Amino acid sequence: MIRVLIADDHHIVRRGLIVFLKTQKDIEVVGEAKNGLEAIELVESLMPDVVLMDLVMPEMDGIQATKKIKEQWSDVEVLMLTSFSDKDHVLPAIEAGAAGYQLKDIEPDDLVTAIRKIMLGESIMHPVATTQLEESIREEENLPHIKNPLTPRERDVLAELTKGKSNREIASSLFVTEKTVKTHISNIFNKLQVQDRTQAALYAVKHNLTEGSGLQ
């Protein structure tokens, strides 16, 4: 079962999500929070697998809550579910550690798919959010050259990771074991000083590391 916590300050939104998610045999809604502070408290007590996080909430917003959750419980994944699609919200949410960013007009079946994919280690972005991220990257001026600290094989793994592939898919593509992929990903996170796959992918795009080394 995928244990889900819903954090949104609108009661009707929470109710709608709960009613639908309860129809899924592999998803269990374990709690609901009205703001970021409640979300943090419930994550500590309930330890969900995924938090569906609204952005704008009283007392503490979703970005602050996400950052604190990822700092303390790195295994808990956060999927932003919001009405805001501008880069001023998208980029901070990803930098805070959100594994995905979806808009509230998402189709119910697509939301379930996103939750399941996040549990497989994939990054799920709404097309509008992806566009905003790309625009933010293009707007960066005078980006300093950073010497690539990764080995050729780590670059290959990072390139596959940016395509949204799971560990199993990366292993199959590079003809290595899943255990080896996990080791490479751990090394990548440490070297790039990032917390998750989404931040690693964002780094790769910023620093032109998306093509891999070509190592076979």
TrEMBL record:
<dbReference type="GO" id="GO:0006355">
    <property type="term" value="P:regulation of DNA-templated transcription"/>
</dbReference>
<dbReference type="Pfam" id="PF00072">
    <property type="entry name" value="Response_reg"/>
</dbReference>
<dbReference type="InterPro" id="IPR011006">
    <property type="entry name" value="CheY-like_superfamily"/>
</dbReference>
<dbReference type="InterPro" id="IPR039420">
    <property type="entry name" value="WalR-like"/>
</dbReference>
<dbReference type="GO" id="GO:0000160">
    <property type="term" value="P:phosphorelay signal transduction system"/>
</dbReference>
<dbReference type="InterPro" id="IPR058245">
    <property type="entry name" value="NreC/VraR/RcsB-like_REC"/>
</dbReference>
<feature type="domain" description="HTH luxR-type">
    <location>
        <begin position="143"/>
        <end position="208"/>
    </location>
</feature>
<dbReference type="InterPro" id="IPR001789">
    <property type="entry name" value="Sig_transdc_resp-reg_receiver"/>
</dbReference>
<feature type="domain" description="Response regulatory">
    <location>
        <begin position="3"/>
        <end position="119"/>
    </location>
</feature>
<feature type="modified residue" description="4-aspartylphosphate">
    <location>
        <position position="54"/>
    </location>
</feature>
<dbReference type="InterPro" id="IPR000792">
    <property type="entry name" value="Tscrpt_reg_LuxR_C"/>
</dbReference>
<dbReference type="GO" id="GO:0003677">
    <property type="term" value="F:DNA binding"/>
</dbReference>
<keyword id="KW-0805">Transcription regulation</keyword>
<keyword id="KW-0238">DNA-binding</keyword>
<protein>
    <submittedName>
        <fullName>LuxR family transcriptional regulator</fullName>
    </submittedName>
</protein>
<dbReference type="InterPro" id="IPR016032">
    <property type="entry name" value="Sig_transdc_resp-reg_C-effctor"/>
</dbReference>
<dbReference type="Pfam" id="PF00196">
    <property type="entry name" value="GerE"/>
</dbReference>
<keyword id="KW-0804">Transcription</keyword>
<keyword id="KW-0597">Phosphoprotein</keyword>
